UniProtKB/TrEMBL annotation, chains A, B, C, D:
Gene3D superfamilies: Putative cyclase. This is Cyclase. Pfam families: Cyclase. The lineage of its organism: Bacteria, Bacillati, Actinomycetota, Actinomycetes, Kitasatosporales. GO terms for molecular function: arylformamidase activity. GO terms for biological process: L-tryptophan catabolic process to kynurenine. PANTHER family: CYCLASE, PTHR34861. InterPro entries: KFase/CYL, KFase_sf.
Length: 320, 320, 320, 320
């Protein structure tokens, strides 16, 4: 598949037409591809718990995170309402020697390991399922497809595609590397794992490992390996429920068009209704999968049900 | 067991002595009773996924929550950085028709459905495992037992004890009702379920159902059914990994001593190292359990790994 | 002047037509009636400093404020980044015995004593000076009339009109009391003070004094004395630079039309370009003015230059 | 005066002993040197309003500010609760064509132009007036000397000492330049202005002008010109009410001792009770003073009365 790199708008329109899912689950749908994750898939996923070992796929949420302020995305600010120092000095006014600590947080919902909600991206003023973006996401939040509607469902079979290890060097792909359908297929074959309807697919590029080694640099917003625009067909045809990567932006950066900004998002979220995860930490899980040769597992990655949110921090838990 | 209601300090000291776990998992322990949740328990839990149906046990996070400002605990404030209205009007400056929405949140970590971290409560200046509270939780957060350390582990066998239905009227216990060991045991027997080492136990009182029907009122901080101080022995003896309720404060309110504040917390968190969840929404799960008669399930309730946090919002997912 | 209480839209249109100032200070104007406050007026104002006594006209900013959550307006949440307890215990890691405390705040800009910026209210999609509201105030804030543009100018002659004392009972007007032009004129005459071009006019109703005595209740958003819709002509004719009250909403509540919401705002801000202050604490100043009989003074009430803000907290300082 | 650069602790102790003011205004004092600013000084200050021109001495508060995250100090995050785009599209649900915009802010109180409160710095566990730091500033804020107590008073005679212009090159001092008493005196003489009891002294170094030209770089926390530790005696002897600079940290950076952190703060705030302002924008005022040769003016710089705050953003207004 060749892209006209000078004409993203036409290419996006073509992909949206070919791979869109508007109306597939009815006019009132709020779940998009998460509809593919059914009870049978959950039973299959649960059967993958063999050893009982669990992994968190989340980065830590703190001021040492990757954000630099782009579009007012800061790192989380965590402050204390009460502390052990106050308690220790007897300053809290509680009876019988009890003391307490409490805390608050302020953070962008997309500051670290997160899901993009269906209201996160629009295509020419249209949100998921063809809705008017202006009537879907206002200053009051996402009035229709807020991420709270997904709260109970994101638990099923996870599949790791460690493209960094299979295709890259020392487990890492370079910035600007566009992962194609061929790379995804080759990786799945190398792992001996199949990807299909309702799966939660995790694509490891090694970009986070590099940031961890070399410092954040432009991890959040800069050059990165990621999915090629040309994978839109694969994303659609496989009928996966969700996909997540260890990169800031899921798709390759710089983008594959001359003047573009996240064109695969524009196809995948508002047109396909695909649930996308970003900045996941897949390294410990990948190391385990490399060791035991098993790249499928039970995965729970439930967004916080923040009413009207277009994204959510998440601590995904894989159990093998 | 009879309590001297005039002397909470002595009763707490006695319970702490009898039911404390300091040193049980070594001097460096950061997990407390979560140590009981091992890989075998996870395998057992996963085997409980029979139908593949999933439930979120989280309340929604928004301004309509229960908080009234006690100790600066507010409801979550969710605001938008970008919206569909801006995108729709072509005001975002992006190419090829892409538009986006982003959002931020500010919230106390204990504002709604949450876990108490091990640094949340102190006993006479001592934190979990006997540590000096002042050196454990400062303005920089919990430097030792921050909730990020629990991130990978809270997935296992869940057991619902619907005391509201078994002991109460119309599924609800009245405010001030102290749930005793006998109530817990009778409920487990009525459900035909056993509670043991490593389990994640959910106790439903019906308090949230009442708040949902009648309005929040004093849900957050006021009178409530909850665990009796006298259950400390049961909590210790059963070797459960964690416990959560549908109430604000886990234990009965008013407390069972004349001048007291959360005495069971003082035993359970810093002395026993027990992981406690509060304000969980157990109603949909309870209805399902009442229908199919199965009160055990796979439960994932991973806290966000907020560095140094003494609590975390959580969206617990039960799968049956 | 009689109002058709069933037709706010026509009455507003009439008043906007009669009392609007669009174009008066050029197409690029960002200041509205603040243009009336010139250097001569500042010289006059400074000459009113006779005794050198200063008054803060600000309520305190804290969790004990009036907000109840309407439209996500909360009270300020102030938390510490570092404390004296940490410093005292030697936990901060600084050399030679220095210790420090730092703090953060999260607050709506209209939570307490504040100015409404010119981008705060629109009339049928039009912002101040006839601008398209959609192109003026987006999710990025007020791109044109952000309150930062007023930062240097709000210092001049202040005049207190204590309508509560002159017209009310025991210094207070009842809720729902509509202050008319006649009340304003009578009060100025009783005080022996003239109101004119460029003045910063403070209208005391006594509503805050009542809230202070009886509790906040519905102070923020509920019934209140305030300016009648019929004062629009007086506000325009006097050519005052700004007006502020001790009430939540400046104008009388309930509003004087059957189905209405803040109709005088709709005339005064987008059409007249009037700078409006709310929730000011005028009581100490009013007591002093009653004592010495002087109701004019030097007033500095500079908004924080928050880029793109449509309001700002302010600590107004009157000096007599 | 020579400093032993290897022994900051002894030098600080000596200066604290020589220049401390504990008890000078009684045991209950909350104002420190602000006590020097009396009504006569305010009358003198007001008399300096000759032309009626006003200047804001505040930087703008936004994400483009100087903070880099040191000690969780971020730049302000300003978000909208309602916008003109929503209003324009008729999505707000208000009657008769009214629309509105509202906003919130989250910011450290010391992120930009600000006052240090008296609870901001401690000396060996002692806060201003000899108080126990641990009992003065807890997680609940500054319980004694919160900046709200200063709210009405910071209005008086301002004096600009443009050391950058008098002593520097092209109006700027280089980083690491320690401003001594001699520099301050020479600058005052060059300006023909006297500094004395109760004055609000503004020292311009040109550091902000350089940051504005070259980018923030390490403006917040890095090398900078500033007051020498040796000016402690001058600060004390002149009996000024407050001092502010156009730099991040008031005193010279790197500090003049080998292993030190802000030693002049340690003398000036907890021992002397001096009110210190930082990150003020003095450039426009300085240009005007250079033009008309008048370096004194009426200055109002009222902190927001945030209960228990150890600092406050401020928009200082100078009027000449």
């Amino acid at each position: 598949m060749t892209l006209d790199r000078t004409d993203p708008e036409s290419e996006i329109a073509r992909a949206a037409e070919a791979f869109g899912n508007w109306g597939r689950w009815g006019a009132d749908d709020r779940l998009g591809t998460l509809n593919f994750l059914d009870e049978a898939k959950r039973r299959q996923g649960a059967s993958l718990v063999r050893r009982g070992v669990s992994f968190s796929l989340s980065q830590r949420f703190d001021m040492d995170g990757p954000q630099k302020g782009w579009r007012r995305r800061t790192n989380p600010v965590h402050t204390m309402l009460d502390t052990g120092t106050d308690a220790s000095l007897g300053l809290q006014g509680f009876p019988h020697g009890i003391g307490g600590a409490d805390d608050v947080i302020a953070m962008p919902l997309q500051c670290s390991t997160q899901w993009d909600g269906l209201g996160h991206i629009f295509d020419h003023g249209r949100a998921w399922n063809g809705r008017d973006a202006a009537k879907t996401v206002t200053s009051d939040g996402d009035l229709v497809t807020g991420i709270e509607h997904m709260a109970p469902y994101v638990a099923g079979r996870g599949v790791l595609l460690d493209v960094g290890h299979v295709v890259g060097t020392d487990g890492e792909l370079p910035d600007g590397f566009a992962i194609t359908e061929e790379h995804l297929t080759a990786t799945a074959e190398a792992h001996g794992v199949a990807v299909g309807r309702g799966d939660l697919v995790l694509v490891r590029t090694g970009r986070l490992a590099r940031a961890r080694r070399e410092g954040w640099g432009e991890y959040a917003g800069g050059p990165s390996p990621g999915l090629s625009f040309t994978t839109a067909g694969w994303l659609h045809r496989t009928e996966i429920a969700a996909i997540a990567t260890d990169t800031w932006g899921f798709e390759v950066r710089p983008n594959e068009f001359e003047h573009a900004f996240q064109p695969l998002h524009q196809v995948a979220i508002p047109n396909m209704g695909l649930l996308i995860g970003e900045m996941w930490d897949l390294d410990a899980l990948a190391a385990d999968c490399a060791t035991d040769g098993v790249h499928e597992f039970w995965l729970t990655a439930a967004p916080l049900p923040i009413t009207g949110a277009v994204g959510s921090p998440v601590n995904p838990i894989a159990v093998k």
